[in-house]
Fold:
Amino acid sequence: MTISVLTIFPELFDGIRKAPIIRRLQEAGTLTLQLVDIKDFAGGSFRHIDDSPYGGGAGMILRFPPLLAALEHAKGMTPEIPAHTVILTPAGHPFRQADAHRLGQEEHLILICGHYEGMDARINEYAQEQISIGDYVLSGGEVPAMVLIDSITRLAEGALRKESTEDESFENGLLEYPQYTRPAVYDGKAVPEVLLSGNHEAIRRWREEQSRELTQKNRPDLWKS
Ligand code: SAM
Structure:
């Protein structure tokens, strides 16, 4: 899979490039992470990437020409494979675990990060979808892009053992049950007895019950659907 990220701050991705799963997939040749600096496509010596909004208003808008040129450049990474382009924006549809599975099937994913007040809306016509990572506003699309990259790549073949991901929160519409590890008692707090019983059926039932209770309590929206 190839993931291209269009950003005005490629250096913000230095950390995630070194994250263990991403490094492993890159070394195995199953992931290519391409960072495209939108500034390189602004033309002229001033690298003019933003401008004030038509119609007035506060802040600056990322200009359409450099965005489009950067997108065309990213598409050139896999000329024979059509890319799936995603714009990161608070106005997009909410990102879910199911989207991580779905986008992980793409051979070439392009993520466009906005900044300042956002980007010229004409770029929307060149994208397949717009995604939001939550109902709050961040200063740039870089953290949202990293959220997508992390959640997608950890599901990839060769990233983690299958059992580690198939039993997790959201995979079956519920939150995951609480987990514990050694020691069995610490600071007066004991691990639930059933987990030490060795009775696999009882443990399975206890976990199922805990998942249901936690989902009802913390995520009534998931419980209802
Ligand atoms: N003026 C925009 C609005 O009110 O919707 C917010 C722009 S925000 C300050 C700058 C950039 O950060 C956006 O273009 C987008 O790429 C990114 N961004 C901020 N919050 C986001 C979120 N919740 N999900 C996805 N991207 C987000």
